[in-house]
Queue: 2 jobs
Job 1
Amino acid sequence: MQFKKLLIALFMITSAALAQVEDTTYSLSTELGIGYSRYFTTMDYSDLNKNGFSGTVRVMWNPEHLLSVGLETGYQYLYSIDVSDFNTDYGTTKFSASMNAVPIFMIFAMKITPNIKLTVGSGVYMLNNSGELFGDQLSSSQLSIGARAGIAYTYPINNSISIGGELLYSYFSKIQDQTVAIQFLFIYDFLKY
């Protein structure tokens, strides 16, 4: 009699445990972000425009566990300045300059809840400068090591598409400045296996 009760109890515990196991899958997803960026710098110019556009494109591999890994690129507006009567030792001229950054990053993401995830990444920024001084066009590019961290909230529309928002912090080591961006986020799981 005891043996029969033990078998029934063991069967019920095993059935309950197996019923809670989910069949999760691996997936590859594309994440597109677009939004507003604010540049923080020690440059002290009254005409400096620090507000601009931020966009990101990520391809992420999402395994069964909570940690995902991927690659990121995009566009980050940093600043622009436009001065019509800039005084120099050589006379007065029109002066304009702008800088943007293109990241090439390795990104790691971890889901804290089903809707909230943290992202961190590091890699290089391609810093693109352009400007005009005394009628001459100037342009240059340089590489900078950088880092990025963010938090995102997403809501699933269906099994493959989620939308939401993301707050991003970026650091540029070459110029020792940073940006904060807020973006609309669109996620598409294009491959599940």
Job 2
Amino acid sequence: MIELMRSWLKRYFSNPQVVILGLLLFLGFVLIFMLGDMLTPVFASLVIAYLLDGMVSALHRFRIPRLVSLVAVFVLFMACLLVLTIGLLPMLSRQIGQLLQQLPSMLSRGQKELMLLPQRYPDFVSEAQIRQILDLFGSELTHLGQRILTVSVASVRGLISLLVYLILVPLMVFFFLKDKVTILEWVTGFLPEHRGLAAEVWKEVNQQIINYVRGKLWEILIVWAVSYAAFKMLGLQFTMLVALLIGLSVIVPYLGATVMIFPVALIAYFQWGWGSQFAYALILYGVIQVLDGNLLAPLLLSEVVNLHPVAIIVAVLVFGGLWGLWGLFFAVPLATLVHAVVKAWFSEQVKRKADTGS
């Protein structure tokens, strides 16, 4: 067995470029997994700078000096951040507070509706089953209330952290954009010389990540805006909160759209009951998801490598479980990275066999 393992390792990992690629991937995984929470502002700044660098490069192609392009893009970014902080966050906070105030009456009404089910459908459900469901739901709400209380107690600390991030992230974004070449040269200086395979993988994945992140960001903004306009005209409560959640749900392919139908249906039901408005809300949500899945997403993400739906779902489950929201957002690029690594690895093995045979 030991000899078999030794033969396998010698066969596939005797190439120093393969070893270097595996080592770089391992170190990157350990860095993110072990220090992800502490380095969250750095990762967020890198992602934002990665997105804004495309705008800077686009302006620079029009023969605008890079420094002028950088300042213009950074001022636009700060203006958007200011609007988000001053305009959007208070509105979301207000709607969340209103939802929490109405939650007890919603729960009471839902409990009454559930208790009517044994009378209407005695052959399918009993009163004992309904009470068991209500007891389980009540215990879950108790745990949720405890978590909310814990968050509220730590709100001062969270507010301080938010203020620190609002200062650190824009500052790091500016320096990442300004000193991009210097930082890349500094990082490259620590890498081994024989990294041709790693460079080949990065070259293939880099364009896919750019296309995916930018396309997904535009998809979130468009779905958010369309959902807000549609539900605002319908008169649905908590419109901004619901629209934001629908926009963010596109981060998780397939699963996000399925999960979000439940809060939309519940809010519509508690506002209008069973009626035409309730049906219109669900129809609007269905139309938005159909247009997003069949028109918007293919249009924005047409240049991203097509992955099988099973591969995408597995990537969402694995990377989401490892890195939370960041893992969900980058599940498809990370799956593309894995695909590129495997393809490059096997291509290298085929090339080595061809060279040996010749």
